[in-house]
Amino acid sequence: MGISVLVPCWAFVFLSLNSVEFTGSETVGEELATMSETETLVLSDSESSSCGCHSLKRERVASIDREASLLFEQAAVKYSETANNGRTFGQEHKQEVDSPNKMVLIPAGEFMMGTNNPGIPQDGESPERRVHLDQFYMDIHEVSNQEFQKFVNVTNYVTEAETFGDSFVFEGLLSKDVKSQISQAVAAAPWWLPVRGADWRHPEGPDSSITDRLDHPVLHVSWSDASAYCAWAGKRLPTEAEWEYACQGGLNNRLFPWGNKLHPKGQHYANLWQGEFPTHNSGEDGYTSTSPVMSFPANGYGLYNMVGNAWEWTSDWWTVHHTTDELHNPNGPATGHDRVKKGGSYMCHKSYCYRYRCAARSQNTPDSSASNLGFRCASQEKL
Ligand SMILES: *[C@@H]1O[C@H](CO)[C@@H](O)[C@H](O)[C@H]1NC(C)=O
Ligand SMILES: [Ca+2]
Ligand SMILES: [Ca+2]
């Protein structure tokens, strides 16, 4: 049963709260946000659900990240507050961005895609299945603002967020000014706001810019925008299988690109969220929003920020049903409604969005864009 509230047509959300997962001794609260096509906002506690990380969608079929569960606060992983002492992120990670992106060879091989020990079963992380891949090349980092700017300079490409005139922004990043102009907050998920004028050049709306973030991942790009960029660069989006295989960095059957421990030796290996979502991001890993695309240690293949920082689009359509047959170079269902994204973002925390694992996955409609969603490209040839 729910409460209904009238909201504008592009902010209709159907949000469900439920489902507590137990993973060892840690509790993982996951919630599903899916959009209804009605003109009401319904807050329900009776629907089956999964994390809302996938759920930003446009217009009648739009849904909102539910990347938090205050109900499950006590389950949050407690990070060492001193883990980052002595690291000076501001300077250490200031860098020249490779523009264009370097690519590395991901050697042909086989791996177990998915997991039989799913962190979030409703995402279709299971079952494990043997996948064979030909060699391919992968961008070593997320496509940066600078790279995307070059693309737009050359092609005059207009992104979908610019065409629609708005995009989803995490509320914690917005100025008071921008926030005050938004009357259509989604009651059930107030940390995602559809912001007029938010686009890749203005990640937090009209009063923001990327001039001091040219080396950060481009955001507010839809699947179509990402595909257009990769095609322009002579590349393509990676398949989900390629992305997941590349994520493992030559290791087998590990949770993360670097192994199974989230914080080896107390160090952060990815730009995630520390603190209590959505009220307090301690920035213990050095960043409360995106970080430069080559921050944090690269994995065994030399790939940066495969998990965390920005979510990354893949070319596959979304399904949660997988064959257990061995597959060669799988590229997902022939058709679908949503596209697969991988890796989680700077907004992910185990308590509400345990998706910064190689086998984790989520989805959005191809025209969706948000302040935590980017991409990188792959190709058969070295470029
Ligand atoms: C894109 O064009 C603008 C305006 O001419 C320029 O300032 C900027 O450096 C260009 N960016 C790239 C990456 O070429
Ligand atoms: Ca962070
Ligand atoms: Ca990433």
TrEMBL record:
Its EC number is 1.8.3.7. Coiled coil: none annotated. It catalyses: L-cysteinyl-[sulfatase] + 2 a thiol + O2 = an organic disulfide + 3-oxo-L-alanyl-[sulfatase] + hydrogen sulfide + H2O + H(+). GO terms for cellular component: endoplasmic reticulum lumen. One of its GO terms (biological process) is post-translational protein modification. Oxidase that catalyzes the conversion of cysteine to 3-oxoalanine on target proteins, using molecular oxygen and an unidentified reducing agent. 3-oxoalanine modification, which is also named formylglycine (fGly), occurs in the maturation of arylsulfatases and some alkaline phosphatases that use the hydrated form of 3-oxoalanine as a catalytic nucleophile. Known substrates include GALNS, ARSA, STS and ARSE. It comes from Aldrovandia affinis. Monomer, homodimer and heterodimer with SUMF2. This is Formylglycine-generating enzyme. It is an enzyme of class 1 (oxidoreductase).
